[in-house]
Design a protein that fits this description.
The structure holds 2 protein chains of 2 kinds. Chain A is of the alpha+beta class. Chain A is built from 11 helices and 14 strands. Chain B is globular and about 55 Å long. The longest helix of chain B has 24 residues. The chains are: A alpha+beta, B alpha+beta. The interface between A and B is medium-sized, with 25 and 21 residues.
């Protein structure tokens, strides 16, 4: 027979009545609460007994406290004076039990009780949720700005859209919690003052479950619509973030064990985790660390979707299609991003030799699945006039200007200019797609027609 | 209220705070020199933001009923507030300031303060209150802890001794006045009851 069990937490933090009733049932079944973890409660086996449980909140307590403060110890003594013994704590939540048949409750004044809970909510729970709303709103604004300024790239990127969706979900969930407890406080205060009743906040996980379900559906869509390589990279990257999170928790526990002050513990843990997360994020984005071994990455990079007609992961156009030469030391890059709105394929064929005179080729084909988006994509892409500032503080101005399109065999073609000087970057506007191509040489008419013919039909 | 004609005229005044005294003045300059007509000690009940004040006399001759001026003294900070009204038998709403903490004492607050009339250990209050009320009133340990904190913050009590974890407290002058105010309110309620039954 087992002596301990772990139960998933199914009550909201401030649902006193629900928690007490549940613990009383467990005691009758022979289980006593021993420890409150982040996601699970640990119970130990005891002789079945009828006990009273009471949940109260000590606003000054913190999850980072190395041990109960003097004030907390005084509070525990007062409770023990009336027969209430401490069972377990979790940050501000203190759970007591009493063996007497009709003990005097720990909280006997609903007005004081409501204010005490409100203090606890205002200390950490509410500020954290508000902070989350603000941070997510900032990120969301940044994402929406990117979508508006460059819809062709961002609306083809399922990871970007997934993040936008997550920000929205987080904002909704956090706002819901803040509003829910604000409403509770108003009603509870009124009930306490006018009727002398305590209105329990209760547990309401319906909205949380809906948000979680939407998140899972979005995650599944992201994984299914991404290539195998991308999916694996996402999964392993996420494990990396989880590992950093675990490290943070271990650090916090170690600091607690070393009796570090709560504030020091909290700040140090936060700062170290923040720095580690930033560093990890930077290394991932700049490709300084490779999640997968190169051969595995190459194998998984083979495009297997059906939006673009590509066989065996071969680029539709390479340097071989334009000129004769030995391109065996050239590297090829092919990546595809796809959403319900559009799919974007990026290809590059470049020499590994960094010598600037050796020609290379790169191009992007964006297939637009929703025709209504076409004009918007084109307008915003053409609108992107960049002011680029170089390290030594000079800047230049990039823009797309329409050029004579007949040699291309397309209706509209644009060329990029820098401060009035033509660059080797072209934008070709076709009915169902927009192509950008950057060859490192001046194209002939025949080459132009090859580009439109091949990339216009994949 | 001796010397004033009797007669009841109920006029409800919403006062933003619990007071000890309500004075009713005739609007100057009709009765210059007459400081006040009557005192109405805490005519209750006081609920929310309103307190019913009974004006136990008709308006003096020549004085417009509508121009009676009410003032009240806030016992806790000793300031006098004045409300002017030009509406007869109407509910006057004048929120001069938001309702402050401890303007109304619950039964538990009352007995905790009562226990601290003399220096007393905080812990002992848990036993004293049921003892003095014949077990009618009990104060929970959590409630007591929070009330002691709040009373300390509001300077209604002060800590006199700390011996390890045993702390003792006593009422301050402010706390004593507040308790007295509550006592008057309860007496006024009892008086109203006796008058009717």
């Amino acid at each position: 027979m087992r002596n301990t069990k772990r139960v998933k937490i199914k009550f909201d933090f401030f649902d006193r009545a629900g928690i007490s009733a549940y613990l009383e049932e467990q005691a009758k079944d022979g289980w006593m609460l021993e420890k409150i973890g982040r996601y699970f409660w640990k119970f130990k086996s005891i002789e079945p007994v009828s006990l009273h449980f009471a949940v109260t909140y000590f606003p000054k307590a913190s999850g980072y406290d190395p041990e109960p403060s003097e004030e907390q110890a005084f509070f525990y003594e007062m409770c023990e004076h009336t027969g209430w013994k401490l069972a377990a704590t979790s940050a501000q939540m203190q759970i007591f039990y009493n063996e007497a048949e009709n003990p005097v409750p720990i909280e006997t004044d609903p007005c004081v009780d409501v204010e005490n809970i409100q203090k606890s909510i205002n200390k950490v729970y509410k500020p954290l949720n508000i902070l989350l709303v603000i941070l997510c709103a900032i990120q969301l604004k940044s994402s929406i700005t990117r979508i508006i300024s460059d819809p062709m790239t961002t609306l083809s990127n399922n990871a970007e859209l997934f993040l936008v969706f997550c920000y929205i979900l987080l904002i909704l969930l956090s706002l819901y919690e803040v509003i829910r407890y604000s409403i509770w406080y108003r009603k509870a205060k009124k009930a306490a003052e006018q009727k002398g009743d305590f209105l329990n906040p209760g547990t309401d996980k319906t909205f949380e479950r809906i948000i979680f379900l939407l998140f899972i559906l979005a995650l599944l869509y992201l994984l299914i619509s991404s290539g195998r390589k991308t999916t694996l990279i996402y999964g392993i990257s996420a494990l990396g973030f989880l590992a950093i999170r675990m490290l943070g928790r271990l650090l916090s526990k170690w600091l607690k064990h070393k009796k570090a002050a709560a504030a020091e513990n909290g700040i140090l843990t936060f700062v170290i985790m923040f720095v580690l997360l930033l560093a990890y994020d930077y290394l991932l984005i700049t490709d300084r660390i490779h999640i997968l071994p190169e051969d595995v990455e190459n194998k998984l990079s083979v495009y297997s979707g059906d939006t673009f007609a590509i066989e065996n992961g071969e680029l539709p156009l390479t340097m071989d299609d334009f000129t004769e030469g030995d391109f065996s030391d050239y590297t090829t890059t092919l990546s595809v991003n796809e959403t319900v709105f559009s799919a974007q394929m990026y290809c590059a064929h470049h020499s590994e030799d960094p010598e600037p005179d050796i020609p290379g080729l790169s191009y992007t084909v964006t297939k637009i699945k929703k025709p209504r988006l076409h004009d918007w994509y084109l307008e915003k892409t053409l609108d992107q006039t960049f002011k680029v500032r170089h390290r030594i503080s000079f800047s230049f101005h990039l823009e797309y200007i329409p050029i004579y399109s007949e040699p291309w065999g397309a209706e509209h073609v644009y060329r990029r200019y820098s401060d009035g000087h033509p660059l080797d970057t072209y934008l070709i506007d076709l009915e169902d797609r927009i192509i950008t191509i950057s060859p490192d040489w001046e194209l002939t008419t025949e080459q132009k027609q090859t580009i439109v013919s091949v990339l216009g039909s994949i | 209220m001796d010397g004033f004609p009797s007669g009841q005229r109920e006029q409800t005044v919403n006062l933003p705070s619990q007071t000890s005294v309500v004075r009713i003045h005739p609007h100057p300059p009709l009765h210059a020199g007459m400081a006040e007509l009557a005192d109405a000690y805490g005519s209750g009940p006081y609920a929310g933001n309103s307190m019913q004040v009974q004006v136990l006399f008709p308006a003096p001759n020549g004085a417009s009923e509508s121009l009676l001026r009410f003032s009240f003294v806030d016992i806790l900070d000793n300031r006098e507030y004045t409300l002017n009204t030009d509406t007869r038998y109407s509910r006057i709403e004048e929120l001069l300031m938001p309702r402050e903490k401890f303007r109304t004492l619950t039964e538990q607050m009352f007995y905790v303060l009562l226990c601290l009339k003399d220096e007393c250990y905080g812990m002992d209050i848990l036993d004293k209150v049921p003892a003095m009320t014949n077990k009618r009133v009990n104060v929970g340990s959590g409630t007591l802890y929070n009330l002691l904190e709040q009373f300390l913050e509001a300077k209604m009590i002060e800590e006199t001794k700390v011996e390890g974890r045993r702390r003792s407290y006593i009422l301050t002058e402010k706390g004593r006045k507040r308790l007295e105010m509550e006592y008057h309110r309860i007496c006024a309620q009892a008086e109203d009851y006796r008058r009717l039954f």
